[in-house]
Amino acid sequence: MDNGEFPQQVKIGTRSIAFVESEVDKWVADKIASRSRKKADK
């Protein structure tokens, strides 16, 4: 999260945050695709 890759959090209260599910799903899919490409390159 510190390197800016993970989706931005959304503040939903004074002590609560959330994440947009579709953004997290895309991030996960991108990570899986990247892993698959790395395995194919070996």
Molecular structure report:
- InterPro entries: AlpA.
- This is Phage transcriptional regulator.
- The protein is elongated, with a radius of gyration of 14 Å.
- With 42 residues, the protein is of the alpha+beta class.
- The longest helix is centred in the last third of the chain and has 21 residues, at 21-41.
- The protein is built from one helix and two strands, in the order ββα.
- The relative contact order is 0.15.
- Strand 1 and strand 2 form a beta hairpin.
- The protein has one domain (10-41).
- The chain starts with 9 loop residues before the first strand and ends with a helix.
- Give the total of domains: 1
- The N- and C-terminal alpha carbons lie at a distance of 28 Å
As a whole number of angstroms, the C-alpha radius of gyration is 14 Å
- Categorize the overall geometry: elongated
Largest sheet: 2 strands, antiparallel
Helix/strand/pairing class, anyone?
A: alpha+beta
Helicity level: 40-55%
Q: How confident overall, as mean pLDDT?
A: 91
Strand order of the largest sheet: 1-2
Would you report the number of β strands? Answer: 2
Number of helices: 1
Residue stretches low in confidence (pLDDT < 50, at least 5 long) are: none
Q: Please state the oligomeric state of the protein chains shown.
A: single chain
Element string (H = helix, E = strand): EEH
Strand coverage percent: 15-25%
InterPro entries: AlpA
Protein name: Phage transcriptional regulator
Pfam family, one: Phage_AlpA
Organism: Arsenophonus nasoniae (son-killer infecting Nasonia vitripennis)
